[in-house]
Amino acid sequence: MTYIMFAGMLCRLSERCYLGLLHSFTIRSSATVPRRDVALFRTIWQEDVPRLSLDHPYLMHAILSFAAAYNMHHSTPGSHSDDRARRAARDHYDQALVSMRALVSQITAEAADPVLCFSILICFITMFLGKVDGLEPIEIALNAKNKHTKLT
């Protein structure tokens, strides 16, 4: 288990690559989320959202997927880093959806902020991954929905 100091808190990360993706999100990829007020944007997307994700796994996986997709977009196509980023983006995307589906019936008013942030990130990731696969964004969203809706 890896521990990091993040936003004044000691945090556990289950894999080392999480730290790299979280760093990538806070420094680079979060800057691609639309914004109006740059100072407020930095506080929300570079500090508050990552801090919220520490208590909400679905949001953490959405952040990690977003960062991996960003890295994939900026890597050399077909390279080792491109393949690794593609796998990470898909794996965290799937884990984000599975985590959210498990909690969707338990959402409270207190969870509104992390759910909103999750929704924004998942929309961007869905459109990006759909484009990578040559699908329309709605097709990949429907494919992901069908993949994870099996009842046990």
Q: Kindly provide the radius of gyration, computed on alpha-carbon positions and rounded to a whole number of angstroms.
A: 15 Å
Query: What count of structural domains?
Result: 1
Number of helices: 6
First-to-last CA distance: 30 Å
Major sheet summary line: 2 strands, antiparallel
Strand content: 5-15%
Q: Helix fraction?
A: 55-70%
- Bulk shape: globular
Strand order of the biggest β-sheet: 1-2
The assembly state of the depicted protein chains is single chain
Low-confidence stretches: 1-10, 148-152
Mean pLDDT: 75
Structural class: mainly alpha
β-strand number: 2
Order of SSEs: EEHHHHHH
Describe this entry's structure for a reader.
By secondary structure, the chain is mainly alpha-helical. The protein has one domain. It is 66% helix and 7% strand. It has helices at 16-27, 38-53, 57-73, 80-103, 112-132, 137-147; strands at residues 2-6, 9-13. A two-stranded antiparallel sheet has the order 1-2. Helix 1 (16-27) crosses helix 3 (57-73), helix 2 (38-53) packs across helix 3 (57-73) and helix 3 (57-73) runs parallel beside helix 5 (112-132). The chain starts with a strand and ends in a 5-residue tail after the last helix. 31% of the residues are buried. One of its GO terms (molecular function) is DNA-binding transcription activator activity, RNA polymerase II-specific. It holds the Pfam family Fungal_trans_2.
